[in-house]
Fold NAD-dependent epimerase/dehydratase family protein.
Amino acid sequence: MDVVEDKRVLVTGSAGFIGHHVMQSLYHTGHTVIGLDVLNSFYDPELKYARLQAQGFEKQKIAYNQLCLNCKDPDLSFIQLDLTDVKGLQMLFHEHQFDIVVNLAAQAGIRYSIDNPQAYIDSNILGFMNLLECCRRYKTKHLLFASSSSVYGNSAEVPFNTAQCTDYPVSLYAATKKANEILAYSYAHLYNIPTTGLRFFTVYGPWGRPDMAYYCFAKSIVEGFPVKVFNNGDMQRDFTYIDDVVSCIVNLLHLSPETAQVSTPFHLYNVGNSKPENLLTLISILERLLGKKAILQLEPMQPGDVHTTYADVQDLEEKINYRPATSLENGLTQFVQWFNLHHYAPKVAALVK
């Protein structure tokens, strides 16, 4: 499905993992696209700058609250900005009057949220509220925002369906994502803002976050360090390859929930592979692809973790004919090819070469 031309699009978190791939998918589409990221140090900022360089932005031209033009596509720009910067965000919306906002900015990480709660409140709650206010004030025609499978908590009701109860998050990160959904629904209802929430399920692939399990496993395997496997390996995740996720986002850009006097223009979707895989299966595939056995260090379940994630994607199948096309084996093959090329680069910024 083709994206609609001549739309002004804001992609927040554009130097992050998913945001990076979304930006690359929007080259030469006719959209005027601005990527936004605060470029914080939750993980090595050089990886974020490397993603931006791969997108066509020169690091030396990036400065806070200054628009940086793209050297590959004149319709793409980038701005370093914090969503908690109310004045800067309002000025950006006032100047560009975005038709579509894709919010992929958030403080990520479940375990990190236990020790650093304020970072999650600031970014995921306050920053998101500021974005909602700008969407209201400047009459955004479609807001798409990232939620998470973590909102389902330890639910034994599988596969997870968007209609089931999500009132019992088991991590602060999950609680902030649930709060995003509630706030977004309220704004959609009160101000008739067409809004789409996307509950992502363990997204993986090239250019991924170094704190994600599959990336940590690969790094530990090649460096000969023990691979920490929680709950003694008895965990399942609905691993979803990045290309399938981005295809879903791009296809939903122009399919906003309908506005009407009698209903709220709001819809939630699960974005998953609908095929849970055991963590030990993931490790076995990585061992084969990397040509080296893992040293397993079995650990108990960690606070905030859940046993299983499993997406019911029927709504997406009906809406956009969503069919995840990438098996775990094929997706990890793509990741390992990228990992082998780039992991040992002296500087992450050299990854784009």
About this structure: The longest strand covers residues 142-148. Confidence is low (pLDDT under 50) at residues 345-353. The CA atoms of residues 44 and 210 lie 9 Å apart. DSSP finds eleven helices and 14 strands in the chain.
